[in-house]
Amino acid sequence: MPELPEVETIRNDLKNKILGKTIARLVIRLPRIVKNNPKTFVRELVKNKFKEINRIGKLLIFRLERGEKFLLVHLKMTGQLIYCAKDFVIAGGHSLPAGQAGLPKLQGCLPNKYSRVIFYFANKSALFFNDLRTFGYLKIVNKNELEKVAVKFGVDPLSQELTPALLKRIFKKRQTNIKAVLINQELIAGIGNIYADEILFTAGVRPDRKARSLRVKEIEKVTRAMKSVLTKAIRFRGTTFNDYADAQGNQGGFAKRLKVYGRTGEKCSRCGGIIIKKKIAGRGTHFCPKCQK
DNA sequence: CTTCTTGTTACTGA
DNA sequence: ATCAGTAACAAGAA
User: Fold this and answer.
1) Interior/surface letters A213-232, b for 16+ CB within 10 angstroms, e for the rest
2) Residue A154 near residue A189 (C-beta atoms within 8 A)
């Protein structure tokens, strides 16, 4: 599931590929993915260019050259944005370069049955929005609408604003457990189920602890863990557990470095305890009951 | 067949 | 008004 490191990887990949290219043609295969009137959507994009790509939490924001408009893309659980250069255009479609892993459950050739929206650029390259479970969306908004969306997001965990002092204030006014706080996008933007578990393991804090019960030393550890886990995950280009692929269609390299997520029943790498899984904050939550306090 | 997967939101009850 | 907790959504895997 794309969280901050995966969305950031895609953003960086796409920046080098699609900025400044003219969008020549659009194919909307599943209209309900597009949250605008389809005709408006096509009119705003065709003959336009992407000028800049930003991210707030897990939301991608493509600034368009013409019209002071922005394309919002949310990948939700199974969304992908895969770019194919014209070299890989084959008859009737596109193919991922040979040697690339492609996608575990999806075909290597694009478009595939999960390609919901396709952008064709003037130079014959293409950008595919694929989404197996169709929870993701694309939406064009103006500056005002973007501002309304943006203010709902909490602090970015990698920004300098996120300090132990701020985290202490966030934790203090909540009655719920720390896992629920970490995945609440209105408080901290970008952490989902996988990285919440990994951050709490690294910090040595049990996910079912009440957020407001954490001591200053523990808050400092959570702050450091947040930065280190997310930074390292970005360095390894994200976690592919099921469907995540980067903008080239490759898997991320962080899955094998996960310490607790998906490791139920395995030995804890820190203390040798057995990792357990339990439903916390409505999500499958993995932790070591021996060394997470 | 049932149960599980999760990012976000709608809804419920306090 | 605000917050916490849960169901729902979708589509596939097991």
Assistant:
1) ebeeebbbbbbebbeebbee
2) yes
Which secondary-structure segment (H or E) carries A85?
Answer: none
Nearest protein residue by Cα to C1' of nucleotide C4? A176
> A133: Cβ under 7 Å from strand C?
yes
Q: Could you tell me the CA-to-CA distances from A164 to A57, A144, A285, A293 in Å, in that order?
A: 19, 32, 24, 19
Pairing of strands A109-110, A93-95: antiparallel
The pLDDT of residue A108 is: 60
Ranges of residues in chain A with a pLDDT under 50 are 90-93, 97-107
- pLDDT of A115 reads 93
User: Which residues are bridge partners to A52 per DSSP?
Assistant: A63
Taking the whole predicted model, whether its pTM rises above 0.85 is answered as yes
DSSP category for residue A108? S
The DSSP bridge pattern shows strands A137-142 and A89-90 to be unpaired
Chain A, 106-125: which CBs lie within 7 Å of strand C? none
Identify the pLDDT of residue A21. 97
Strand B close residues, chain A 55-94, CB < 7 angstroms: 57-59, 74, 76-77
What length does chain A have? 293
Q: What is the pLDDT of residue A110?
A: 83
List A119's β-bridge partners, or say none.
Answer: A26, A127
Whether the beta carbon of A15 falls within 7 A of nucleic chain B: the reply is no
Q: What local confidence, expressed as pLDDT, does residue A98 receive?
A: 36
* Residue among A55, A58, A69, A206 flagged as catalytic: A58
* Structure confidence at residue A91 (pLDDT): 42
